[in-house]
Design brief:
The chain contains six helices and no strands. By secondary structure, it is mainly alpha-helical.
């Protein structure tokens, strides 16, 4: 299956609604679990459920192995610059930063790290943003 045209992206199918509801259900369930166990909710949200489900749906839609492999590899590289946020955010909050300034600073940090990652990987022949 080839890529779809940009003009088709805004159209919503019943299958898209099912995907949306399933993803929303995962978020709601994890949020409810967080009410009694921070660690269990963190474990559940850290699992690559969204990526795994997306790859299953890609396979079901007839996407080829190469497209699924590209998706999995891209996910690996794009996760790396998000990891420091999970150390910086709690540190900032514990140092007395407010939630919103901490979140904004970490969004900027992550965006900067994405930019650095893309630039570094291009030097090694890996182009994340062709």
């Amino acid at each position: 299956m080839s890529k779809i045209a940009w003009s088709q992206v805004p159209s919503i199918t019943p299958q898209d609604l099912v995907k949306l509801l399933l993803r929303a259900a995962v978020i709601v369930v994890v949020n409810k679990i967080q009410c009694f166990s921070d660690r269990l909710s963190a474990l559940l949200i850290a699992l690559p459920l969204t990526s795994l489900v997306a790859m299953v749906w890609m396979h079901q839609a007839g996407q080829g192995s190469q497209r699924i492999a590209n998706h999995a590899e891209g996910t690996f590289w794009f996760v790396l610059p998000t990891l420091p946020m999970f150390l910086a955010l709690p540190w900032m909050l514990r140092q007395g930063w407010g939630f919103w300034p901490s979140l904004a600073a970490n969004c900027l940090l992550t965006a900067g790290l994405f930019w650095v990652l893309v630039r570094v990987l291009r030097r090694f022949g890996i182009d994340l943003l062709p």
